[in-house]
Amino acid sequence: MRRSRKVKILATIGPASSSEEMLRKLFEAGADVFRINMSHTDHDLMRTLVSRIRKVEAGVGRPIGILADLQGPKLRVGKFANGRETLKPGQTFTLDDNPEPGNAERVYLPHPEILKSVEPGHRLLVDDGKLELKATACDGRSITCVVVAGTAISDKKGVSLPDTDLPVGALTDKDRADLDAVLETGVDWVALSFIQRPDDLAEARRIAQGRALLMSKIEKPQAVARLNEIIELSDALMVARGDLGVEMPLEAVPGIQKKITRAGRRAGKPVVVATQMLESMITAPVPTRAEVSDVSIAVFEGADAIMLSAESAAGAYPVEAVATMNKIATKVETDPLYAGIINAQRSEPEATGADAISLAARQIAETLKLSAIVTYTASGTTGLRAARERPQVPIIALSPIVNTARRLSLLWGTHCVVSPDAIDLDDMVARACRIAQEENFGNKGDRIIITAGVPLRTPGSTNMLRIAYIGVDEGSVDPERGRITPQREK
Fold first, then answer.
1. Is there a catalytic annotation at residue 76?
2. Measured between alpha carbons, how far is 71 from 50 in angstroms, rounded to an integer?
């Protein structure tokens, strides 16, 4: 199955979409990668979902990526004697280390790291920003605040700290247990929530040991401030607009989204734009016009993937949400303005042989109007470099390693195929031609351009370009060797 668009769709799995039948429908509607939200998924259910996705993958014959999204530190207030209290702007309210039930004057905050880190003047946003407090006095055991806006607080509401740098890592005990569990199942990507600093990725990378790639969710002001450092240590980024919009002014979020997307593109790191993209489709079969525009902006900006959350996880119209996102993205990519916008944001290649080869492949393919760029990639690096160029022609990523193909399914413009490794250069060219035709990227006589590393099977050694004719440089399969025997037409 060949997609008619380059941006990828990431669909979250939940009660509305967890059956094998529904997962297949979502894939057929356009989902390329499935997200498992570990905030709402225990280990047994997670294993079941991974198994079902792999069954769908086997049935459709296409590599499907799986993203496990870790919950991260959830900061919440304690309980109230009455379950809920009404506050007034201007009044004093205290958060402290007293575990007694709260009242209209105070509440327990079971996070000593917050009590010790907040300083006078810092903001505390409760219940997704519905209640705003400002610290006026702090002694390490309590935070005295003034109510700035909002009138209600109730049991276990979340607390956001846009002005406070907490001295804790991004992984909680729950996250560590979840990370071990998802790595055992062979998921392809792990998303890390509430990243504040580059060091927050270190522990997860030590645990993962290359078994999965790490995606940093940018949802805190501290992460935005150190974006370039975080990008350098991340394998991908997610613009997590939900919490980002709580901790930063709403009007700042669109600019930050563009900043993150463009920074990721410059670095050659995939970028996912997420949260409330088609929010109204949780309960309605069609989106609002504003939501269509929102999705379109992410596509025009050149994001690698756009994500559905509750729309596909718990909504009444999960398949319709994926299909709608697919239609929007496909239409945008055929817009006359699309290519110019994508090209204008293209960054200069790094001074390496592999980057120069990828740049040349894109320029040659567009100049000669070739049918596809075919990249041989074992580690995925060649595919990443090809996608960074945002070529107008499709990218076919051939890999002998199924895990690499699954990981690259998140990548802009990349059609992934699992194929046995080439035996030699002639085999490599012949195999590329045959697969390009089988996957409907070209017909007999059409041309493709091939990039690879020589010697073969040497990761990170992209150093070769070859233009080939489908049906001319193509050969036949030798069943004894499991390879293609070159056979030129006369």
1. yes
2. 18
Per-residue pLDDT tens over the stretch 388-424: 999 999 999 999 999 999 999 999 999 999 999 888 8
Active site residue 217: yes
**Catalytic residue list contains 259:** no
Please state, in angstroms and as integers, the Cα–Cα distance from residue 278 to each residue in 37, 94, 459, following that order. 18, 38, 40
Q: How many CB atoms lie within 10 A of CB 456?
A: 17
Residues 390, 413: contact at Cβ < 8 Å?
yes
Residue 263, pLDDT > 50, answer yes
Q: Name the strand (E) or helix (H) holding 129.
A: none
Whole-angstrom CA distances from 238 to 25, 144, 192 are: 25, 35, 9
Choose, from 275, 377, 404, 414, the residue flagged as catalytic: 275
Active site residue 275: yes
Q: What average pLDDT does range 81-100 have in this prediction?
A: 96
Which entry of 6, 8, 35, 241 is annotated as an active-site residue? Answer: 35
Burial track 221-242 (b if 16+ CB lie within 10 A, e otherwise): bbbbebbeebbebbbbbbbbbe
Q: Dig out the tokens for 385 from the structure.
A: 């470099």
Whether the CB-CB separation of 28 and 11 falls below 8 Å is answered with: no
For the chain, give the number of residues.
490
Tokens read off for 314: 């718990």
478 is written with which tokens? Answer: 């030798």
Q: What SS3 state is found at 443?
A: coil
Q: Which of 6, 24, 62, 217 is catalytic?
A: 217
Helix (H, G, I), strand (E, B) or coil at 271: strand
47, 76, 205, 327: the catalytic one is 76
- CB neighbours of residue 265 within 10 Å: 23
Domains annotated for the chain, with CATH where assigned, are: 8-72+170-332 (3.20.20.60), 84-160 (2.40.33.10), 353-485 (3.40.1380.20)
Alpha helices in 61-129 (DSSP H): 112-117
Contact call for residues 221 and 194 (beta carbons, < 8 A) = no
- Average pLDDT over the chain, rounded to whole? 92
| Angular region, 482: left φ>0, alpha ψ -120 to 50, beta rest | left
Q: What share of the chain is helix, strand, coil (3-state, %, to 5)?
A: 35, 25, 40
Confidence (pLDDT) at 476: 45
